[in-house]
UniProtKB/TrEMBL annotation, chains A, B:
GO biological process, one term: prolyl-tRNA aminoacylation
Record remark: domains: Consists of three domains: the N-terminal catalytic domain, the anticodon-binding domain and the C-terminal extension.
Name of this protein: Proline--tRNA ligase
Organism annotation: Ruminococcus albus SY3
Stretches assigned to the Aminoacyl-transfer RNA synthetases class-II family profile domain: 44-286
Designated gene of the protein: proS
Pfam families recorded: HGTP_anticodon, ProRS-C_1, tRNA-synt_2b
Amino acid sequence: MAKNKKMVDAITSMDEDFAKWYTDICTKAELIAYTSVKGCMVIRPYGYAIWENIQKILDTRFKALGHENVCMPMFIPESLLQKEKDHVEGFAPEVAWVTHGGSEKLEDRLCVRPTSETLFCEHYANIVHSYRDLPKLYNQWVSVVRWEKTTRPFLRSREFLWQEGHTIHETPEEAIEETERMLNCYADFCEKDLAMPVVKGRKTDSDKFAGAEATYAIEALMHDGKALQAGTSHYFGDGFAKAFGIQFTGRDNKLAFPHQTSWGVTTRLIGAIIMTHGDDNGLVLPPAVAPIQAVIVPVQQFKEGVLEKANEVYEQLKAAGIRVKLDDSDQSPGWKFAEYEMKGVPVRIELGPKDIENGQCVIVTRHDREKTFTPLTELVETVNAKLEAVREGIFQKALENRERRTYACKNTDEIIKALEENGDGFVKAMWCGEEECEDKVKELTGVGSRCIPFEQDNFSDVCVCCGKPAKKMVLWGKAY
Amino acid sequence: MAKNKKMVDAITSMDEDFAKWYTDICTKAELIAYTSVKGCMVIRPYGYAIWENIQKILDTRFKALGHENVCMPMFIPESLLQKEKDHVEGFAPEVAWVTHGGSEKLEDRLCVRPTSETLFCEHYANIVHSYRDLPKLYNQWVSVVRWEKTTRPFLRSREFLWQEGHTIHETPEEAIEETERMLNCYADFCEKDLAMPVVKGRKTDSDKFAGAEATYAIEALMHDGKALQAGTSHYFGDGFAKAFGIQFTGRDNKLAFPHQTSWGVTTRLIGAIIMTHGDDNGLVLPPAVAPIQAVIVPVQQFKEGVLEKANEVYEQLKAAGIRVKLDDSDQSPGWKFAEYEMKGVPVRIELGPKDIENGQCVIVTRHDREKTFTPLTELVETVNAKLEAVREGIFQKALENRERRTYACKNTDEIIKALEENGDGFVKAMWCGEEECEDKVKELTGVGSRCIPFEQDNFSDVCVCCGKPAKKMVLWGKAY
């Protein structure tokens, strides 16, 4: 039989060129393909299956917390976008404008939603009248458009997929609680399901979402020491309600303005997975979101009984709820090993005539290539244990990378030295609260403020920049 | 306790004004809300939950048939849209054009996808090289935009949600088989899950999809006798492949053009559900897609033990996998009955102190208001049986409506008479195959060709219009 000509090409090593290593994985693991639509991409089946798994887990979590899904239009009339001053200032420069419908010129041009606060506000104004109508806990899974100048698959593209939660509440306390609840939900998802450690914190004022009173974020450290914002949660106070005339009759029978939140994560999480767990052999996927959790590679599959046994094993694992694939194509086992390493399949099961004779198989975990011989009678338990071992293993590896690359610094010279000696990473440093110092730190050292971590560690009394009394410990880093 | 002021408003009766009855249901069952974006709508939680159920069932069916989900960009450069002549002619007049990104004018303007054949073709050209790369069986769940002049919720809106399947095959036979397989998949879904009888057939040439060699469709008859196209499946031959330069090396080592299909259903299905099953009390939902399959309404809920028992029943049904809601709000039972009838909940369970004493409850089915006293020990089985009874009952009702309103006519006078005497409906009539006759029938009688049914019934030898020899029996109707 003719062999399939496709080979698993080697990818650029991450030490040689991290950016190229990243895009190599995106294309060679068949996550994306480029298109003639500048800054946009095709998310291919393997990439989209990861997103579907992320969606399933998050959607279940959101619904368990009482949220309902809705769907708003993808267009926002310019006049509607302009209603909240800060919001339009933040977003107008980077939106795509629809000016014609068919051959007709539109009177009020429409932007393709960059985010949907304005549409939700218009809707709330129509449906919220009494405290009995509150809260509304909404979410939608859609794509949004932001006209970025430079783009990279998953990390920064002109169109990206996301979920945007939008909620509206009777009191500020309730809204703030929701903001925090959803940040915790994201953090828990990232750590448990994506095996990616994150720091929870509040953004400084200069880094808030356009129109928000407070923005909270989770920050992760990538393998190359750069920081990636993995999710955000915003508290709006009643600013949007006032701009859009949303009012309700309270328990005291008086008119009041409700308080709002919004929160979102995007396909950027797939970029985060790549850069947190990947290695020079390709992708390494957290089992919870891996489209294939275990792949069975038969060895000497033409020998009698091998494919039969492999199929038995396949059915057994499938019945146990494991996402399993049996590759009985005519490629060599070596080719298949490389292919599924590239695709980051957490567990590989090798099964040849000798194994079958001995009533066992070989299990190899992707992240550490550890081999285990397992009796076929204990297969399901062992595969499940190995999937958990992968999760735990890649989480610990990522955590160690972050610990090793987190530098506590007392002045900007220390920051510069730490980065020079140890490479990019998170910098912990005290801050006086002035934007001027924030800017100056960035100018002098290259790292910007990522967030003010909830978990504070006040190891110095003075600002890393001006030396005046410090208010907060800030986490700094180079951003993606 | 203060009562919630919201009341269940009566809706316009369908006999009085079918169009108003329809939009009343859309808004009062809280399926949609209008927005300031002309021709677009908010799909509210209850409406979106129906769509989510449709998606879940169809997505499972598609995947079982080997399809994979992908995601293409929402934009198509004008130059790409223009590659296939018929296709661009069909769609260009009704697309929304993005001309500016931020403050910059685009060189090649982008349309918001009205459908994605051109993007899939561009992608295929990049990834299909050998017969070994075929077939590709892709699907995506996205929204598309068509700049309609007059719009109605779900039936015709400028933006709508849909799935678009796109497949590419080695041979025409395989592609035609896929086209038919997916039409059958849609028909089976409509009849089994939506309880909506459909006629499968082929569109006449004048009614084909822009760029298709053949378009197949399923047609349903609404309660008012109008026809609704509920799903389509297109066979493209190799026309797109030639226009986009998609070629593969065949088994004979020669270059060849592959053959393609596409197929889709949209949120229009929700409109079809409303107009097939709804009545003057509101929506009637097929159990398979009902967000709430059974609602528990406690009677005299302030009496000791009632809410406790209601909660027990709730937990029991939930554990059995039934989508159940317990409404223990302080509205009266009568208000709740009306509210959940409006929302089309298939089964209502009434539970009061006397029922509890007798170890029973009352089950009322939505479509026929039939009451059944059921021992609480047999609750799960009975509710499941009732859900099946609703499905069967509404399917039969819709089928009877269609049979009653299907008229076999031998000439245009008979058509006019049948429609006048019995109201709008499907007309079966023989056709010579000439577009001229097709147009003339429409002009004279008001009904257009819906499809050439696969199930032919050649009850006359001559064309209903010109009297020349007939080639096919055509199904005619007034379109939504």
